[in-house]
Specification:
Elements: E1 2-11, E2 14-20, E3 25-30, H1 36-47, H2 63-77, E4 96-103, E5 123-133, H3 136-159, H4 175-186, E6 187-194, E7 228-233, H5 259-271, H6 283-312, E8 343-347, E9 358-361, H7 367-386, E10 409-415, H8 423-437, E11 450-456, H9 460-464, E12 471-477, E13 487-492, H10 501-513, E14 523-527, H11 530-543, H12 545-548, E15 552-556, H13 559-562, H14 566-572, E16 575-579, E17 584-585, E18 601-602, H15 605-609, H16 617-621, E19 629-633, E20 636-641, E21 646-648, E22 657-659, H17 664-671, H18 673-677, H19 684-694, H20 698-710, H21 714-722, H22 735-755
Parallel strand pairs: 3-11, 3-12, 7-10, 10-11, 14-15, 14-16, 16-20
Antiparallel strand pairs: 1-2, 1-4, 4-5, 5-6, 8-9, 12-13, 17-18, 19-20, 21-22
Helix pairs in contact: 2-3, 5-7, 7-8, 11-21, 19-20
């Protein structure tokens, strides 16, 4: 049994999404505020803890309709013979999670409670968990009663001439405010069977959950009991450095600190304690405990004899009173119930003196290792509880092998495992976590007992260690209606490249050799070569301070390969600026200096195949700013920035001529002419200076530049520019790059404004308690 996918609707910004689950590890990636945490919360609330729901977990835009339901109830509430309230008006507004399981033919007996029909024989099986009114009549009557009380109070104040009454705000003003306080009283999670034949695929990333047929009733009890064991590790794990805050030696020790000690003690209690269901191997330990108790009792009797004698001097005990004695009861877990129970061996032999190992308590280790050890112990505990390892075996079961029947599916949810871990440890953890969960003789490759691990992360290092088939990208999308709330869709990156195996292989290898921060960025800049990779960040710092405040991923990828990233960029919906080169050539394939009217074309695959989809050099030189942008939706566009004609004046007394830059380097020279013509040293800058001063025509300038560029070491040239001994750094960005960066900055600013979700619907002021 496996979870194939879940569909979540009407939960926070998750209006309607589908998340496909991998067979082993599924990784949630995406930029900040893209919906990863909302998805993890939905899984937790629906599958683990139904008491966590709050009013603001309803999708914000749905509160307009929910308040209208309240208004409708108010309008008909006092009408004689008004119709009874039903769930019909609520159904499209309620948070829900559809869980779709892949069930083997030999597992049908396990899912009998959730079968859609008696004829179902295997395959997909769906269960809807919906957060809904438990008793709609109670909600209806109590809401109207509260509203009537407010109205009567306000009416009475007006009749008494209270001048402050028009400005008073009483609770509740509407359904939203009523449920902010009373949600848990009237709402709960109920389960419904779904029809596999009515399951539909998403369109444009939006899931299409099926509507429940009229009159269908909920499933009695918990439909997942006995099917899925669910465990989680939350993002906030409350580790602290030694002596920080309340963890000082004189501070209260009753909080959530010393988690490793508590976890090890819990593991001991569940799996190792010899006093629980003793076995022959435990007898030696139990005997040692009894001997220690007797010896300690004797020591206590001798030690307390004088003190007890003095007590007897006060007349106690009398002749018939029970005699006071001291006895011990040793519990092994007492040795794990103090802050120094977990220690770290710093020097095994105690150093040069050899006096024994030098130890430090739990709090003295780094937060990263505390987090790592904690997560590993929890995963081991989850696995061993599922497999009933050691003392976790049920004592009331028969001795037969059939008595052990764990749930067929073990689902583990982990939020942000990277907390406090350095890069290498992050990678090791995600590589080994699933293997650890399967490390048991009854698991391994056993298809009857499945484990699925779901991880949300902000770490490119964690994403780097996973395959594309395991990544689920959370994408921020524009509102469905003007003025609405931005939503989220989820891309299954295993389907990004389709059958293009060569492209997928290239992109996977490319990202593995660079970084995976593309999956967490607000935007991307793809650059042509090493010179741009070195200098564009400097341009950003000097000229685009606002853009620097966003999370922009800068990737170096040649113009002949940038188009291969397009399927991935389009799936991510990532606003992208591609900084590339004109790369003029003859139809024969010979590279040349760019010139108008010569039938030249570009060798750049991005310009030919993606944006602006033009091959002719003359057309590219005359392309407008609009031609260089490809718009997909209100939140996602791609723009290309390449060299275009410039009007320059090489010398003070020379005429203005048209310069046709072909690469980043000559464009940079043309936009920084004064710096190059004033240059006094040697090297490449001197060569560029001479070409500029001697090139009094477009053709001569182009030929001279082409000759230098043919043998230029571009990275070395960029480093020379970066090393200019002037403050502030004098080089300004080439015009074509500057225009592209201004476009990118404007896109991100506009997107940020539109992503600012409206507050929950409510009027000004604060409601007064009833």
């Amino acid at each position: 049994m496996l979870i194939e996918f879940v569909e979540i609707q009407n939960f926070r910004k998750l209006k309607a999404i589908r998340i496909d689950f991998a067979r082993d590890t599924t990784l949630f990636v995406g930029a900040n505020n893209s919906g990863k945490t909302s998805a993890m919360s939905a899984l937790r609330y629906f599958l683990v803890d139904n008491e966590c729901f709050q009013a603001n977990d309803f999708t914000l835009s749905n509160w307009i309709s929910i308040n209208k339901i309240g208004e409708k109830w108010q309008s008909v509430g006092d009408t004689p013979n008004s119709p009874a309230p039903t769930l019909f008006d609520w159904e499209t507004l309620l948070p829900s999670l559809d869980l779709w399981l892949s069930v083997r033919d030999d597992e049908v007996h396990r899912v009998s409670r959730v079968l859609p029909t008696l004829g179902w024989s295997g395959g997909l099986l769906g269960v809807r968990l919906r957060y809904e009114p438990k008793k709609i009549d109670d909600l209806y009557s109590d809401y109207l009663s509260s509203i009537r009380k407010v109205n009567e109070t306000m009416k009475g104040a007006v009749l008494e001439g209270d001048s402050a009454s028009p400005h008073a705000v009483l609770w509740p003003r509407d359904m939203h405010e009523f449920l902010e306080r009373k949600l848990g009283t009237y709402f709960g999670v109920r389960a419904y069977c779904l029809d596999p034949d009515k399951q539909e695929s998403p369109i444009n990333g939006m899931a299409r959950p099926q509507a429940l047929p009229g009159g269908i009733g909920p499933i009695d009890g918990d439909p997942l009991k006995g099917l899925i064991r669910i465990r989680r590790i939350d993002a906030q794990r409350d580790f602290a450095d030694v002596y920080s805050g309340r963890d000082r030696p004189d501070a209260d020790r009753g909080g959530e600190k010393h988690k490793l000690t508590k976890q090890l003690r819990a593991y001991y209690d569940n799996h190792l304690d010899p006093a629980k269901s003793p076995e022959p191997s435990d007898l030696e330990a139990l005997g040692a405990i009894r001997s220690a108790e007797k010896l300690f009792d004797l020591k206590l009797k001798i030690g307390f004899s004088s003190a007890l004698g003095e007590v007897e001097g006060f007349g106690y005990p009398g002749g018939t009173d029970p005699k006071l004695t001291i006895a011990t009861k040793i519990r092994l877990t007492d040795g794990l119930d103090h802050p120094a129970a977990v220690q770290y061996e710093v020097l095994p032999t105690g150093g040069m003196g050899g006096s024994g190992p030098l130890l430090l308590p739990e709090d003295y280790n780094g937060l990263g290792y505390q987090n790592l050890i904690s997560m590993v112990f929890r995963l081991m505990s989850f696995r061993d509880e599922w497999m009933q390892v050691g003392k976790a075996k049920k004592t009331d079961l028969a001795e037969s092998a059939d008595a052990f029947s764990p749930e067929p599916l073990h689902l583990i949810l982990i939020e942000e495992p990277e907390a406090h871990l350095h890069a290498q440890v992050q990678q090791v953890f995600i590589n080994k976590a699933y293997k650890l969960l399967r490390s048991h003789k009854n698991l391994g490759d056993n298809p009857r007992l499945s484990t699925q691990l779901v991880v949300s992360t902000h770490s490119g290092h964690v994403a780097h260690e996973c395959e594309f088939e395991q990544l689920r990208y959370f994408r921020r999308r524009p509102p469905l209606i003007p003025g609405g709330v931005p939503i989220t869709t989820v891309a299954n990156l295993s389907r990004v490249f389709g059958d293009e195996k060569d492209t997928k292989r290239f992109v996977t290898r490319y990202l593995k050799t660079t970084h995976f921060d593309l999956f967490f960025a607000d935007a991307a800049i793809l650059v042509e070569g090493p010179a741009e990779r070195i200098l564009v960040p400097q341009f950003l710092r000097n000229e685009f301070r606002e853009l620097c405040k966003s999370y922009v991923s800068l990737l170096e990828i040649g113009g002949s390969h940038a188009h291969r990233l397009s399927p991935l960029i389009e799936s991510l919906g990532l606003t992208t600026l591609i900084i590339t080169d004109l790369d003029a050539m003859l139809p024969s394939g010979l590279s040349v200096a760019p010139a108008r009217g010569q039938g030249q074309i570009t060798r750049n695959a991005t310009l030919k195949q993606r944006v602006p989809e033009k091959k002719s050099l003359d057309e590219l030189l005359d392309a407008t700013a609009e031609d260089k942008v490809k718009i997909y939706d209100n939140f996602f566009s791609i723009r290309v920035a390449y060299q275009f004609p410039l009007q320059i004046k090489p010398g003070e007394e020379s005429a203005t001529i048209e310069a046709l830059p072909n690469t980043f380097e000559d464009a940079l020279v043309y936009d920084n002419l004064q710096i190059f013509t004033d240059f006094k040293g040697d090297g490449k800058m001197k060569e560029f200076k001479e070409v500029v001063l001697e090139g009094n025509t477009t053709e001569a300038l182009g030929r001279g530049m082409f000759k230098i560029l043919a043998k230029l070491k571009k990275a070395e040239f960029a480093l020379d520019l970066l090393d200019l001994k002037k403050d502030p750094w004098p080089i300004k960005s080439p015009t074509y790059i500057r225009e592209g960066l201004f476009w990118l900055q404007d896109q991100l600013q506009r997107k940020e404004e539109e992503l600012s979700a409206p507050s929950p619907p409510q009027t000004l002021g604060k409601a007064v308690s009833e």
